[in-house]
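[audit] Reproducing an earlier prediction to check determinism. Same input, same settings, fresh worker. If the tokens differ from the archived copy the diff job will pick it up downstream; this log only records the rerun itself.
[audit] input (186 residues):
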Amino acid sequence: MEPNEDMRREAERALSGFTGFIPVDAPAEDTGLSAHSVDFITVAQAFHWFDADRFREECRRILRPDGRVVLVWNSRIPDTAWYRANDRICRQWCPAYKGFSGGSDENPDDFSGFFNGGCDYEAFQNDRKLTLEQFIGGSLSASYAPREGDMHLQSFIDELTSLFHRYAEGGILTIPQVTRSYTGGV
């Protein structure tokens, strides 16, 4: 499910070679999938965009009995100098920036109202290793990033480039992050 045309087109470009990949132009709250047709629903990096109540109802509608929902985030580790510098740059040049991952603290307790009877929580270290091009491209793909024609775009890119060179080793920036998953019934 991807209601954003640009993001859906990128997924189609990257995933079209996989059998079973079927892109759908629909929001998470109204998928158009058949009732009781899904065993697992996986949401990666996007739950903070959803209307949680409407999404929960859609999950209940399309999940088979005993189906589960998995919410997954890759989160930067905030107690690092790199994180603080990247956060400062985003706050300075991105008016829509509310924090990485939508500002969510990603605490299991934050999801107690979404899951029926709580959830299983897992977390593990999952550092990202990026070239300059990947780092800039990923930063510009964020919903809060300045867009083409924005007077802050070049300043944002310049500061990100400087940040990259300050922390990269051998042309690779290692971004300390943790992957968190929350799994449960709804």
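[audit] rerun output stored. Observation attached for the diff report: The beta strands are 38-44, 63-76, 120-125, 128-130, 173-175, 177-184.
[audit] end
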